[in-house]
Amino acid sequence: MKNVTDSFLSLGPWPSAGSFGFNTDILATNLINLSVVLGVLIFFGKGVLSDLLDNRKQRILNTIKNSEELRERAIEQLEKARTRLRKVEIDADQFRVNGYSEIEREKLNLIDSTYKTLEQLENYKNETINFEQQKASNQVRQRVFQQALQGALGTLNSCLNSELHLRTISANIGILGAMKQITD
């Protein structure tokens, strides 16, 4: 026992031969300690480490599998979105073409409507001019007739004396009486 105590107390690099004790040489004891610790860890920790690595491997595989599934769904959604985009672009082109056609059709309709309106206005103008010409012509005729009648009356009044005037009135009354008998 003295040797064991001596080795604890010995500050020398090597304990005495044939005795059991602690080696205080740090470099020599580290290699031995490390190999013992590693051996114990490998022997006892092999199952735990294997389970940990298996669990980690399984989680990584599940993550990869989930990532692949997400990737596939994302690709499907992308394809659907591209299909919808193509459809929307086609619809937009149709709307654009139809819109241009509609605009052109409306433009032609507006031009036709404008021409018809101009023709109607021209017809109204011509009718108004004709009406005004006829009105003016009728007024001129009436004025000429009135002047001619006044001239004739003036001439008759100056030429007729009262006896001739009475005979004309009697003749006219006779004509009117004869016409009344014919109509009855």
UniProtKB/TrEMBL annotation:
Function: F(1)F(0) ATP synthase produces ATP from ADP in the presence of a proton or sodium gradient. F-type ATPases consist of two structural domains, F(1) containing the extramembraneous catalytic core and F(0) containing the membrane proton channel, linked together by a central stalk and a peripheral stalk. During catalysis, ATP synthesis in the catalytic domain of F(1) is coupled via a rotary mechanism of the central stalk subunits to proton translocation.
Pfam family, one: ATP-synt_B
Subcellular location(s) of the protein: Membrane; Plastid, Chloroplast thylakoid membrane
Chief localization: membrane
Extra information: In plastids the F-type ATPase is also known as CF(1)CF(0).
Family annotation (InterPro entries): ATP_synth_b/b'su_bac/chlpt
Transmembrane stretches, start-end: 26-49
GO CC, any one term: proton-transporting ATP synthase complex
Mode of membrane association: Single-pass membrane protein
Similarity comment: family membership: Belongs to the ATPase B chain family.
Name recorded for this polypeptide: ATP synthase subunit b, chloroplastic
Keywords carried by this UniProt record: ATP synthesis, CF(0), Chloroplast, Coiled coil, Hydrogen ion transport, Ion transport, Membrane, Plastid, Thylakoid, Transmembrane, Transmembrane helix, Transport
Coiled coil: 57-98
GO MF annotations, alphabetized: proton-transporting ATP synthase activity, rotational mechanism
HAMAP family registered for this protein in UniProt: ATP_synth_b_bprime (MF_01398)
Subunit structure: F-type ATPases have 2 components, F(1) - the catalytic core - and F(0) - the membrane proton channel. F(1) has five subunits: alpha(3), beta(3), gamma(1), delta(1), epsilon(1). F(0) has four main subunits: a(1), b(1), b'(1) and c(10-14). The alpha and beta chains form an alternating ring which encloses part of the gamma chain. F(1) is attached to F(0) by a central stalk formed by the gamma and epsilon chains, while a peripheral stalk is formed by the delta, b and b' chains.
